[in-house]
Amino acid sequence: MNHDPEVYSDPMSFRPERFMDPNPEMDPPEACFGFCRRICPGRVLADASVFISCAMVLAVFNISKDPEDSFIVTDPSTGIISHPSVFKCSISLHLDRAVALIQADERR
């Protein structure tokens, strides 16, 4: 549904600005969670879970592109579950006390 050329102009390209134009294209969650009586009952839980997971990772780590790479190529895979291709990135701790937090979680 999210690759329909009648809904999205150039649907296979990564263009987040398409949702910020004065006439934005349809927001993907409006289509991917279904419609009317067939809408996914877990959509609110799914959105909240992804948000909380991202917030927890970003609270502890700095994630940036690898200094050796000039740009990141994000050619998505195809199939039932798509994901970006493998790329190098730099992950470092945001705070020194985050080490204690991570080690405490590993001991459980």
From TrEMBL:
Family annotation (SUPFAM superfamilies): Cytochrome P450
Lineage, opening ranks: Eukaryota, Fungi, Dikarya, Basidiomycota, Agaricomycotina
Cofactor(s) needed: heme
GO molecular function: heme binding; iron ion binding; monooxygenase activity; oxidoreductase activity, acting on paired donors, with incorporation or reduction of molecular oxygen
Pfam family, one: p450
Protein residues bound to heme: 40
Keyword Zinc among UniProt keywords: no
Domain of life: Eukaryota
UniProt-recorded name of the protein: Cytochrome P450
